[in-house]
Design goal:
- The protein is built from seven helices and two strands.
- By secondary structure, the protein is mainly alpha-helical.
- Strands 1-2 form a two-stranded antiparallel sheet.
- Strand 1 and strand 2 form a beta hairpin.
- It is elongated.
- The protein starts with a strand and ends with a helix.
- 0% of the residues are buried.
Length: 199
């Protein structure tokens, strides 16, 4: 079998002996003559030189293209932006994206989605209102306690109705948060609060 050289001229090397995929560091087959081996070495050297020349040409072309882009005012960043924009446009026009978009639109118009959105909105408003009210009450109670602390000793302040009320409110919030997380329906938090009020 004759091999074409890079320039298109047939090579005079005969590969009929069938060099198989052997290890790279393995010795050449013994049935090749010294002349064939020399010819192969020359061919390899020429091929490696051509590869190096092609790399240099490619590098020169890349530099030339970069120079043209710079002259056009296209920075590497704008090139990346352009590629990303083009890629995003391709994604938006792809069949999977269009299908998913249509599905999401159908979901957003479904009654379950609308009800859930409304319920979450109402829950958020109620929670916000409750936290706001609690903040006002805490601020007021702290202000009352600070005026008490200037006039009354600590043991007397602890027995005052303001302190007890504040303590109960903080205990209620703690019990609701901790109770809902650990008790899961256990009413021991309620029992503790009611026992505090009875004493």
């Amino acid at each position: 079998m004759n091999r074409q050289g890079f320039g298109g001229a047939p090579s005079s090397i005969n590969f009929s002996t069938g060099i198989t995929g052997t290890a790279i560091n393995e010795c050449p087959p013994s049935d090749l003559t010294e002349e064939d081996l020399d010819s192969l070495r020359v061919e390899l050297s020429k091929t490696e030189d051509e590869i190096q020349t092609l790399r240099q040409v490619l590098l020169a072309k890349e530099k030339y293209a970069a120079d043209i882009r710079r002259q056009l005012g296209m920075s590497p960043l704008s090139n990346i932006k352009q590629n990303l924009s083009k890629g995003w446009q391709e994604v938006q026009t792809s069949a999977p994206y269009l299908t998913a978009s249509a599905t999401l639109e159908d979901i957003s118009h479904s009654t379950v989605y609308v009800r859930t959105r409304e319920s979450l909105s109402q829950a958020g408003q109620v929670t916000s209102s409750a936290l706001s009210t609690m903040g006002v009450v805490i601020t007021r109670r702290l202000a009352e306690m600070s005026t008490l602390s200037h006039t009354v000793s600590v043991p007397t302040m602890r027995n005052s109705s303001t302190f007890k009320s504040f303590e109960d409110m903080v205990g209620n919030v703690k019990d609701k948060v901790a109770g809902s997380m650990t008790n899961n329906g256990d009413t021991s938090g309620f029992e503790r609060r009611s026992s505090r009020h009875n004493t």
